[in-house]
Specification:
Elements: H1 21-30, E1 49-52, H2 60-76, E2 83-87, H3 93-106, E3 111-114, H4 122-133, E4 142-146, E5 155-161, H5 170-185, H6 196-201, E6 205-208, H7 210-217, H8 224-230, E7 234-237, H9 247-254, E8 258-260, H10 291-295, E9 302-306, E10 313-317, E11 321-322, H11 325-339, E12 348-352, H12 358-366, E13 370-373, H13 381-386, E14 389-394, E15 398-401, H14 415-429, H15 433-444, E16 448-455, H16 458-465, H17 469-472, E17 476-477, E18 480-481, E19 484-488, E20 495-503, E21 506-512, E22 518-525, H18 529-548
Parallel strand pairs: 2-3, 2-4, 3-6, 7-8, 7-9, 12-13, 12-14
Antiparallel strand pairs: 1-5, 4-5, 9-10, 10-11, 14-15, 16-22, 17-18, 19-20, 20-21, 21-22
Helix pairs in contact: 2-3, 2-5, 4-7, 8-14, 11-12, 11-15
């Protein structure tokens, strides 16, 4: 979180300053991005390409180029099965879908769209890909999710999932990015396209019932009967996102005592409360964006929300309110290994290097191998696929885990099952996740964790990304001996894109943003807030030294 909190944070969105949707859509179709301007080029990272039509960073030209690049990539990889595509509720998602279908149909890619013309969460796309590919050696499926995640209403996003069901890895995203930008530079000369009505009517665009397949399968990963039988009361807020039409079928099928507190879909997201910076942002881990659901906590035994594509979760416990994502990850891990008796005795716990060290302590307590990887859910895909990881989670409130039988569920983050797991553990334990967290910290210690975003130039971000352990030379951290200084993740030896320094009771990590002119300081103490501030000061000193030594 940034250092400065807006005076409007947590307050209802200003109804006079909402998104001008017609103007945004007009800009999408009429804007002409200039590939000579870096901010208007395709930037296709792990989370896909994101931007807004207002600044010519997410326009029809981008989607034409990216979709054609994906068609070329999947052909080169021999991916000949159907492509599962879904959208969230952002204003740019529907026009981007229309553009993508024009290109996919022209390239004769069999494309599966929602049978009801509705919205499809990211985890539901991952589930569909894996379900189709299960038992197949060839003709594998892949997918596209059109979403900028929890970003503000004016943003659009477009990401590619490979046949493993998870986010595309760096080699794929770099290839797609290069090819798409080359197409932009060629004024889209290499893009195949047919008119939208022809695309919809073609044999290559086919309806698919995403929701029924996902909902029916839920009993294989969550103990829905336990939730139903317990009578645990559940509050659910889709935050106006893609999960809005998934919850009613879940509630009806499993007869759980759940209430969807808001079913409104509005691309202006006028019903939201402002996030920390005064912007509308559907961040289910933010206490400001979650003000309304937090205010309802007394009405339910447990409540939860999802962001716009439902790959993230925000857990509101009756006992303590909105849980810090790190705290819930630790509780979920402890509960899963206590309750999933059919999981392999060798499957490990996956976390990112900037997630809480409380997870390390929980892993040691349950006697499981810890696999610490760089930031990015793609690093958990292989482990979840082969069952060597029972759980993979990120500090940004994204996680997935295995089915009851130890097989893969999704290889992308699933905020739906994370929320339902909170209800299951409340039913089974008789206390909510907040109270369970209290018991864990009594035994293992309570962490004080914070992330700060600070300004950094492009040159400084590049410098920080290339930092080495040798040049830092820190032997003491806030009064304790440094026990580890790493620039590569212990779990897979991949670069973390920065540095992490740890002592027995605290650590910090420095990482540059890949998209904004900021760098991130992650820090944690198991002693006190004052000790945390000492660690943050040490982190700032390291950053200043790196930036000075150009």
């Amino acid at each position: 979180m940034s250092e400065k909190i807006s005076t409007t944070a947590g307050k209802p969105a200003d109804q006079t300053r909402l998104l001008d949707v017609p103007r945004l859509i007009t800009c999408y179709f009429t804007g002409r991005p200039d590939p000579a301007i870096p901010a208007q080029r395709v930037s296709f990272g792990t989370s896909g390409h994101r931007g807004t039509a207002f600044s010519n960073s997410f326009n029809e030209a981008h989607i034409l180029a990216i979709t054609q690049a994906i068609c070329l990539y999947r052909a080169a990889q021999g991916t000949t099965g159907p492509l599962f595509i879904g959208i969230d509720t952002h204003a740019l998602s529907i026009p981007a879908l229309a553009t993508a279908l024009e290109v996919l149909a022209a390239n004769e890619v069999v494309t599966m769209i929602d049978a009801q013309g509705g919205f499809t969460p990211t985890p539901v796309i991952s589930h569909a890909i894996l379900s189709y590919n299960r038992g197949r050696a060839g003709g594998l499926a892949d997918g596209i999710v059109i979403t900028p995640s929890h970003n503000p209403p004016q943003d659009g996003g477009f990401k590619y999932n490979t046949p493993n069901g998870g986010p595309a890895e760096s080699d794929a995203t770099m290839w797609i990015e290069r090819t798409a930008n080359a197409l932009l530079e060629q004024k889209l000369a290499g893009v195949k396209r047919i008119p939208y009505p022809r695309a919809l009517a073609s044999a290559h665009v086919r309806p698919h019932d995403y929701i029924t397949a996902y909902v029916t399968d839920l009993a294989n990963i969550i103990d829905m009967e336990l939730i139903r039988g317990s009578g645990v009361t559940i509050g659910i807020d889709p935050l106006g996102g893609a999960s809005v039409h998934v919850w009613a079928p879940i509630i009806d099928r499993y007869r759980i005592s759940a209430t969807v507190v808001n079913t409104v879909v509005d691309p202006t997201f006028r019903f939201m409360t402002n996030d920390w910076d005064g912007q509308i942002r559907m961040d289910c881990s933010s206490p400001y964006a979650m003000t309304r659901l937090i205010g309802l906590r007394e009405k339910f035994d447990v409540a939860f929300a999802n962001d716009t594509d439902a790959d993230r979760h925000g857990i509101v416990a009756h006992s303590c309110g909105l849980m810090n994502p790190n705290h819930y990850l630790a509780v979920a891990i402890a509960y899963l290994w206590d309750s999933r008796t059919d999981w392999s005795s060798t499957c490990g716990v996956g976390k990112t290097v900037v997630s809480s060290a409380l997870i390390d302590r929980v892993a040691r307590q349950i006697g499981r191998r810890l696999v610490e990887v760089p930031v990015g859910f793609k690093w958990f895909v292989d482990g979840l696929t082969d069952g060597s990881l029972g759980f993979g989670g990120e500090e940004s409130a994204g996680a997935s885990f295995l089915r009851h039988d130890g097989s893969v569920w999704t290889t992308d983050k699933d905020g739906l099952i994370a929320g339902l797991l909170a209800a299951e553990m409340t039913a089974r334990n008789g206390i909510d996740p907040g109270a369970s967290y209290g018991r864990i910290t009594q035994a293992l210690g309570a962490p004080f964790y914070e992330r700060i975003d600070a300004a950094a130039t492009a040159a400084q971000r590049t410098r920080l990304k290339a930092i080495t352990a040798e040049e830092v030379g820190l032997s003491e951290l806030a009064g304790e001996k440094v026990i580890a200084t790493i620039t590569r993740a212990p779990g897979n030896n991949a670069p973390i894109g920065g540095i992490k320094i740890a002592a027995e009771n605290g650590w910090f990590a420095l990482r540059p943003s890949g998209t904004e002119d900021v760098y991130k300081i992650y820090a944690e103490s198991f002693r006190s807030p004052a000790h945390l501030h000492q660690i943050q000061a040490a982190a700032q000193e390291v950053a200043n030294k790196v930036f000075e030594d150009k």
